[in-house]
Design goal:
The chain has about 350 residues and is of the alpha+beta class. Helices cover about 25% and strands about 25% of the residues. It starts with a helix and ends in an 8-residue tail after the last helix.
Protein backbone atom coordinates (compact mmCIF):
# COMPACT_ATOMS: atom_id res chain seq x y z
CA UNK A 1 0.00 0.00 0.00
CA UNK A 2 2.78 2.48 0.96
CA UNK A 3 4.60 1.88 -2.33
CA UNK A 4 1.36 2.43 -4.26
CA UNK A 5 0.72 5.68 -2.40
CA UNK A 6 4.17 7.09 -3.15
CA UNK A 7 3.75 6.35 -6.87
CA UNK A 8 0.44 8.20 -7.10
CA UNK A 9 1.15 10.95 -4.54
CA UNK A 10 2.11 13.64 -7.06
CA UNK A 11 -1.05 13.07 -9.09
CA UNK A 12 -3.29 13.01 -6.01
CA UNK A 13 -1.77 16.22 -4.60
CA UNK A 14 -2.31 17.80 -8.02
CA UNK A 15 -5.98 16.81 -7.75
CA UNK A 16 -6.49 17.89 -4.14
CA UNK A 17 -4.47 21.12 -4.10
CA UNK A 18 -4.13 22.47 -7.63
CA UNK A 19 -7.59 21.41 -8.82
CA UNK A 20 -9.77 21.22 -5.70
CA UNK A 21 -7.96 23.99 -3.82
CA UNK A 22 -8.09 21.97 -0.62
CA UNK A 23 -6.66 23.43 2.61
CA UNK A 24 -6.01 21.72 5.96
CA UNK A 25 -9.29 21.16 7.77
CA UNK A 26 -11.44 20.95 4.62
CA UNK A 27 -13.88 18.07 4.35
CA UNK A 28 -13.54 15.95 1.22
CA UNK A 29 -16.20 13.50 0.08
CA UNK A 30 -14.98 10.76 -2.28
CA UNK A 31 -17.77 9.18 -4.31
CA UNK A 32 -16.93 5.71 -5.63
CA UNK A 33 -18.78 3.20 -7.80
CA UNK A 34 -20.15 -0.21 -7.01
CA UNK A 35 -21.62 -2.84 -9.31
CA UNK A 36 -20.40 -5.47 -11.75
CA UNK A 37 -19.19 -3.06 -14.43
CA UNK A 38 -17.58 -0.30 -12.41
CA UNK A 39 -15.37 1.96 -14.50
CA UNK A 40 -13.05 2.98 -11.66
CA UNK A 41 -10.54 0.93 -9.70
CA UNK A 42 -12.08 -0.02 -6.35
CA UNK A 43 -8.85 0.94 -4.50
CA UNK A 44 -8.70 4.56 -5.66
CA UNK A 45 -10.86 6.12 -2.97
CA UNK A 46 -8.87 4.44 -0.19
CA UNK A 47 -5.53 5.48 -1.69
CA UNK A 48 -6.64 9.10 -2.16
CA UNK A 49 -8.00 9.10 1.40
CA UNK A 50 -4.59 8.11 2.77
CA UNK A 51 -2.86 11.00 0.96
CA UNK A 52 -5.63 13.44 1.92
CA UNK A 53 -5.44 12.50 5.61
CA UNK A 54 -1.69 13.08 5.56
CA UNK A 55 -2.51 16.61 4.35
CA UNK A 56 -4.81 17.19 7.35
CA UNK A 57 -7.97 16.92 5.27
CA UNK A 58 -11.08 15.26 6.66
CA UNK A 59 -12.33 12.56 4.31
CA UNK A 60 -15.37 10.39 3.85
CA UNK A 61 -16.03 7.71 1.26
CA UNK A 62 -19.51 6.99 -0.07
CA UNK A 63 -20.22 4.26 -2.61
CA UNK A 64 -23.17 4.04 -4.99
CA UNK A 65 -24.16 2.18 -8.11
CA UNK A 66 -24.43 4.24 -11.31
CA UNK A 67 -27.96 5.37 -12.20
CA UNK A 68 -29.80 5.97 -15.46
CA UNK A 69 -29.59 9.76 -15.29
CA UNK A 70 -29.31 12.76 -12.95
CA UNK A 71 -32.98 12.54 -11.97
CA UNK A 72 -32.17 9.29 -10.11
CA UNK A 73 -29.18 10.72 -8.23
CA UNK A 74 -28.77 8.65 -5.02
CA UNK A 75 -30.23 10.33 -1.95
CA UNK A 76 -27.49 9.12 0.40
CA UNK A 77 -24.84 10.66 -1.86
CA UNK A 78 -26.81 13.90 -2.09
CA UNK A 79 -27.06 14.15 1.68
CA UNK A 80 -23.32 13.69 2.18
CA UNK A 81 -22.48 16.20 -0.58
CA UNK A 82 -24.41 18.89 1.23
CA UNK A 83 -22.02 18.55 4.19
CA UNK A 84 -18.75 18.51 2.22
CA UNK A 85 -16.44 21.35 1.25
CA UNK A 86 -15.26 19.31 -1.75
CA UNK A 87 -16.82 16.35 -3.55
CA UNK A 88 -14.66 14.26 -5.89
CA UNK A 89 -16.35 11.73 -8.13
CA UNK A 90 -14.62 8.46 -8.94
CA UNK A 91 -17.95 7.53 -10.44
CA UNK A 92 -20.07 8.08 -13.52
CA UNK A 93 -22.47 9.97 -11.25
CA UNK A 94 -20.23 13.01 -11.76
CA UNK A 95 -20.53 12.68 -15.52
CA UNK A 96 -24.29 12.56 -15.29
CA UNK A 97 -24.55 15.89 -13.44
CA UNK A 98 -21.94 17.78 -15.46
CA UNK A 99 -24.63 19.85 -17.22
CA UNK A 100 -27.09 20.15 -14.31
CA UNK A 101 -27.15 21.47 -10.77
CA UNK A 102 -25.90 19.01 -8.19
CA UNK A 103 -26.44 18.90 -4.40
CA UNK A 104 -24.53 21.11 -1.99
CA UNK A 105 -22.58 24.36 -2.26
CA UNK A 106 -19.08 22.89 -2.10
CA UNK A 107 -16.73 22.39 -5.00
CA UNK A 108 -17.48 19.37 -7.22
CA UNK A 109 -14.92 17.57 -9.34
CA UNK A 110 -15.32 14.75 -11.84
CA UNK A 111 -12.09 12.81 -12.22
CA UNK A 112 -11.30 10.75 -15.31
CA UNK A 113 -8.33 8.93 -13.81
CA UNK A 114 -9.84 5.45 -13.88
CA UNK A 115 -6.99 3.51 -12.27
CA UNK A 116 -3.78 3.97 -10.31
CA UNK A 117 -1.89 3.93 -13.62
CA UNK A 118 -3.48 7.24 -14.58
CA UNK A 119 -2.28 8.84 -11.32
CA UNK A 120 1.25 7.54 -11.92
CA UNK A 121 1.47 9.20 -15.34
CA UNK A 122 1.75 12.76 -16.70
CA UNK A 123 -1.98 12.48 -17.42
CA UNK A 124 -2.65 13.33 -13.76
CA UNK A 125 0.72 14.73 -12.71
CA UNK A 126 1.18 17.65 -15.11
CA UNK A 127 0.42 20.87 -13.23
CA UNK A 128 -3.33 21.39 -13.21
CA UNK A 129 -3.08 25.17 -13.02
CA UNK A 130 -0.98 25.31 -16.19
CA UNK A 131 -3.45 23.06 -17.99
CA UNK A 132 -6.38 25.16 -16.78
CA UNK A 133 -4.68 28.35 -17.96
CA UNK A 134 -4.19 26.79 -21.40
CA UNK A 135 -7.83 25.72 -21.43
CA UNK A 136 -9.02 29.22 -20.55
CA UNK A 137 -6.98 30.84 -23.33
CA UNK A 138 -8.32 28.28 -25.80
CA UNK A 139 -11.95 28.91 -24.79
CA UNK A 140 -11.43 32.68 -25.09
CA UNK A 141 -10.01 32.23 -28.61
CA UNK A 142 -12.88 29.94 -29.62
CA UNK A 143 -15.58 32.25 -28.29
CA UNK A 144 -14.04 35.24 -30.07
CA UNK A 145 -14.03 33.36 -33.40
CA UNK A 146 -16.86 33.65 -35.91
CA UNK A 147 -16.61 30.31 -37.71
CA UNK A 148 -14.83 26.96 -37.81
CA UNK A 149 -14.07 24.13 -40.20
CA UNK A 150 -13.67 20.42 -39.36
CA UNK A 151 -12.20 17.85 -41.74
CA UNK A 152 -11.10 14.28 -41.09
CA UNK A 153 -9.54 11.37 -43.04
CA UNK A 154 -12.89 9.56 -43.01
CA UNK A 155 -14.30 12.15 -45.43
CA UNK A 156 -15.98 14.49 -42.95
CA UNK A 157 -16.04 18.13 -44.09
CA UNK A 158 -18.08 20.57 -42.02
CA UNK A 159 -18.39 24.32 -41.60
CA UNK A 160 -20.16 26.01 -38.72
CA UNK A 161 -20.57 29.35 -37.01
CA UNK A 162 -19.75 30.33 -33.46
CA UNK A 163 -22.73 31.69 -31.57
CA UNK A 164 -22.59 34.76 -29.35
CA UNK A 165 -22.36 34.41 -25.58
CA UNK A 166 -24.81 37.30 -25.28
CA UNK A 167 -27.68 35.23 -26.67
CA UNK A 168 -28.89 32.06 -24.87
CA UNK A 169 -30.34 30.86 -28.17
CA UNK A 170 -26.95 30.82 -29.88
CA UNK A 171 -24.42 30.87 -27.02
CA UNK A 172 -20.97 29.74 -28.10
CA UNK A 173 -20.48 27.00 -25.50
CA UNK A 174 -22.29 25.21 -22.67
CA UNK A 175 -20.34 25.36 -19.42
CA UNK A 176 -19.85 22.32 -17.20
CA UNK A 177 -21.39 22.46 -13.73
CA UNK A 178 -18.54 20.41 -12.26
CA UNK A 179 -14.78 20.87 -12.54
CA UNK A 180 -12.85 18.25 -14.48
CA UNK A 181 -9.63 16.53 -13.45
CA UNK A 182 -7.34 16.40 -15.19
CA UNK A 183 -8.09 19.09 -17.76
CA UNK A 184 -9.43 16.95 -20.60
CA UNK A 185 -11.60 18.98 -22.91
CA UNK A 186 -13.22 22.38 -23.41
CA UNK A 187 -16.95 22.97 -22.88
CA UNK A 188 -18.96 21.72 -25.87
CA UNK A 189 -19.43 24.19 -28.72
CA UNK A 190 -23.12 24.62 -29.37
CA UNK A 191 -23.99 23.78 -32.96
CA UNK A 192 -25.07 26.82 -34.93
CA UNK A 193 -25.50 26.88 -38.70
CA UNK A 194 -23.52 23.67 -39.29
CA UNK A 195 -23.38 22.41 -42.88
CA UNK A 196 -21.46 19.80 -44.85
CA UNK A 197 -20.85 16.07 -44.67
CA UNK A 198 -20.33 14.04 -41.49
CA UNK A 199 -19.07 10.49 -41.87
CA UNK A 200 -20.44 8.01 -39.35
CA UNK A 201 -18.01 5.11 -38.98
CA UNK A 202 -16.58 2.71 -36.41
CA UNK A 203 -19.36 3.01 -33.81
CA UNK A 204 -21.84 5.22 -32.02
CA UNK A 205 -22.04 5.45 -28.22
CA UNK A 206 -24.07 7.37 -25.67
CA UNK A 207 -23.04 10.89 -24.68
CA UNK A 208 -22.61 9.63 -21.07
CA UNK A 209 -25.30 11.96 -19.74
CA UNK A 210 -27.84 9.16 -19.52
CA UNK A 211 -27.43 5.41 -19.42
CA UNK A 212 -29.59 3.21 -21.61
CA UNK A 213 -29.60 -0.32 -23.01
CA UNK A 214 -27.82 -1.09 -26.30
CA UNK A 215 -26.12 2.33 -26.32
CA UNK A 216 -23.28 1.10 -28.55
CA UNK A 217 -23.85 0.53 -32.25
CA UNK A 218 -21.01 -0.82 -34.38
CA UNK A 219 -20.97 0.57 -37.91
CA UNK A 220 -19.83 -2.04 -40.44
CA UNK A 221 -19.41 0.32 -43.40
CA UNK A 222 -19.17 4.14 -43.26
CA UNK A 223 -22.31 6.17 -43.83
CA UNK A 224 -22.28 9.85 -44.77
CA UNK A 225 -24.79 12.21 -43.17
CA UNK A 226 -25.65 15.29 -45.23
CA UNK A 227 -25.84 18.10 -42.67
CA UNK A 228 -27.97 21.13 -43.45
CA UNK A 229 -28.48 23.86 -40.88
CA UNK A 230 -27.26 21.64 -38.02
CA UNK A 231 -29.46 18.68 -38.89
CA UNK A 232 -28.69 15.34 -40.55
CA UNK A 233 -31.13 15.67 -43.46
CA UNK A 234 -30.08 12.68 -45.56
CA UNK A 235 -27.73 9.70 -45.55
CA UNK A 236 -25.69 8.01 -48.27
CA UNK A 237 -24.15 4.55 -48.05
CA UNK A 238 -25.29 0.98 -47.51
CA UNK A 239 -29.09 0.93 -47.16
CA UNK A 240 -29.13 -1.64 -44.35
CA UNK A 241 -26.48 0.27 -42.43
CA UNK A 242 -28.39 3.51 -42.81
CA UNK A 243 -31.50 1.84 -41.43
CA UNK A 244 -29.60 0.62 -38.36
CA UNK A 245 -28.13 4.06 -37.73
CA UNK A 246 -31.46 5.84 -38.09
CA UNK A 247 -33.05 3.40 -35.67
CA UNK A 248 -30.27 4.07 -33.14
CA UNK A 249 -30.66 7.85 -33.46
CA UNK A 250 -34.44 7.67 -33.15
CA UNK A 251 -34.29 5.31 -30.19
CA UNK A 252 -31.90 7.59 -28.29
CA UNK A 253 -33.98 10.69 -29.04
CA UNK A 254 -37.03 9.09 -27.46
CA UNK A 255 -35.40 9.48 -24.04
CA UNK A 256 -35.97 13.24 -24.08
CA UNK A 257 -38.46 13.48 -26.94
CA UNK A 258 -36.13 15.64 -29.03
CA UNK A 259 -35.19 15.62 -32.71
CA UNK A 260 -33.27 12.40 -33.53
CA UNK A 261 -31.35 14.05 -36.36
CA UNK A 262 -30.36 17.27 -34.63
CA UNK A 263 -26.63 17.75 -33.88
CA UNK A 264 -26.40 19.68 -30.63
CA UNK A 265 -22.75 20.33 -29.86
CA UNK A 266 -19.19 19.07 -30.27
CA UNK A 267 -15.76 19.20 -28.69
CA UNK A 268 -12.27 17.72 -29.00
CA UNK A 269 -9.75 16.48 -26.44
CA UNK A 270 -7.00 18.82 -25.23
CA UNK A 271 -4.95 16.59 -22.93
CA UNK A 272 -2.02 15.22 -24.97
CA UNK A 273 -1.23 12.73 -22.20
CA UNK A 274 -4.57 10.90 -22.53
CA UNK A 275 -4.23 7.17 -23.09
CA UNK A 276 -6.10 3.88 -22.87
CA UNK A 277 -4.08 0.67 -22.54
CA UNK A 278 -6.90 -1.85 -22.33
CA UNK A 279 -9.05 -3.37 -25.07
CA UNK A 280 -11.59 -0.62 -25.86
CA UNK A 281 -14.05 -3.12 -27.32
CA UNK A 282 -14.48 -4.82 -23.95
CA UNK A 283 -16.50 -1.75 -22.94
CA UNK A 284 -16.58 1.15 -25.41
CA UNK A 285 -18.51 3.36 -23.02
CA UNK A 286 -15.72 2.99 -20.42
CA UNK A 287 -13.10 3.58 -23.12
CA UNK A 288 -14.78 6.85 -24.04
CA UNK A 289 -14.63 8.00 -20.42
CA UNK A 290 -10.84 8.21 -20.67
CA UNK A 291 -10.15 8.52 -24.40
CA UNK A 292 -12.30 11.61 -24.98
CA UNK A 293 -9.47 13.76 -23.58
CA UNK A 294 -7.16 12.84 -26.46
CA UNK A 295 -6.55 15.48 -29.16
CA UNK A 296 -7.04 12.62 -31.61
CA UNK A 297 -10.67 12.27 -30.59
CA UNK A 298 -13.47 14.64 -31.64
CA UNK A 299 -17.09 13.84 -30.90
CA UNK A 300 -20.51 15.31 -31.60
CA UNK A 301 -23.51 15.14 -29.28
CA UNK A 302 -26.73 14.45 -31.16
CA UNK A 303 -30.25 13.05 -31.00
CA UNK A 304 -32.62 14.54 -28.47
CA UNK A 305 -32.69 17.69 -26.42
CA UNK A 306 -29.35 19.23 -25.52
CA UNK A 307 -26.88 17.67 -24.95
CA UNK A 308 -28.40 14.69 -26.77
CA UNK A 309 -27.87 11.00 -26.13
CA UNK A 310 -25.69 9.90 -29.05
CA UNK A 311 -21.96 10.51 -29.43
CA UNK A 312 -20.66 10.49 -33.02
CA UNK A 313 -16.93 9.87 -33.24
CA UNK A 314 -14.20 11.41 -35.41
CA UNK A 315 -10.52 10.55 -35.24
CA UNK A 316 -7.42 12.58 -36.18
CA UNK A 317 -9.46 15.58 -37.28
CA UNK A 318 -8.07 18.91 -38.52
CA UNK A 319 -9.91 21.87 -37.02
CA UNK A 320 -9.65 25.55 -37.90
CA UNK A 321 -11.14 28.59 -36.23
CA UNK A 322 -11.25 31.67 -38.46
CA UNK A 323 -9.08 29.70 -40.92
CA UNK A 324 -6.31 29.12 -38.36
CA UNK A 325 -5.43 25.52 -37.43
CA UNK A 326 -5.83 24.53 -33.78
CA UNK A 327 -5.70 20.77 -34.47
CA UNK A 328 -3.91 19.23 -37.45
CA UNK A 329 -4.52 15.53 -38.14
CA UNK A 330 -5.02 14.84 -34.43
CA UNK A 331 -2.08 16.95 -33.30
CA UNK A 332 -3.05 19.74 -30.89
CA UNK A 333 -1.01 22.42 -32.64
CA UNK A 334 -2.49 25.14 -30.43
CA UNK A 335 0.06 24.01 -27.83
CA UNK A 336 2.88 25.31 -30.03
CA UNK A 337 1.91 28.94 -29.55
CA UNK A 338 4.47 30.92 -27.57
CA UNK A 339 1.88 32.18 -25.07
CA UNK A 340 0.89 28.57 -24.38
CA UNK A 341 4.43 27.22 -24.17
CA UNK A 342 5.23 29.86 -21.57
CA UNK A 343 2.74 28.20 -19.24
CA UNK A 344 4.86 25.04 -18.99
CA UNK A 345 8.44 24.22 -17.92
CA UNK A 346 10.75 24.02 -20.93
CA UNK A 347 11.72 20.44 -20.13
CA UNK A 348 8.24 19.18 -21.05
CA UNK A 349 7.73 21.17 -24.27
CA UNK A 350 8.77 18.35 -26.58
CA UNK A 351 6.76 15.88 -24.51
CA UNK A 352 3.66 17.99 -25.05
CA UNK A 353 4.09 17.74 -28.82
CA UNK A 354 4.98 14.08 -29.09
CA UNK A 355 2.31 12.61 -26.84
CA UNK A 356 -0.64 13.85 -28.89
CA UNK A 357 -0.56 10.51 -30.67
CA UNK A 358 -0.57 8.47 -27.47
CA UNK A 359 -2.29 5.12 -27.75
CA UNK A 360 -6.02 5.34 -27.08
CA UNK A 361 -6.66 1.76 -28.10
CA UNK A 362 -7.83 2.36 -31.67
Amino acid sequence: MNNSIEKIRKGVVNLLVNCAGASPGDSVLLVGESGKESYFSETLCALVTTVANQMDLTTEIVIAEPVADASQFPIHVSERMQLADITIFFSRLGDQVRFTESPGTGKKIMTYALTEEYFRSPFSQIDHKSMQAMHDILVEKIESSSQYQITAPCGTALRGKIGTKFSPETSATTDFSVDIFPVMIFPPINIYSLNGELTLSNFLTSSSTRSYDNSVLYIDTPVTAIVEDSRMEDFTGDVKQIKKIKYQLENAAQITGGDPYRINSWHTGINPFSFYNENPHTNLERWGTAAFGSPRYTHFHASGHNPGDIAIQLFDASIQFNDEYYWDAGQFTFLRREEILNLYPKEIHQQLFHTSLENIGL
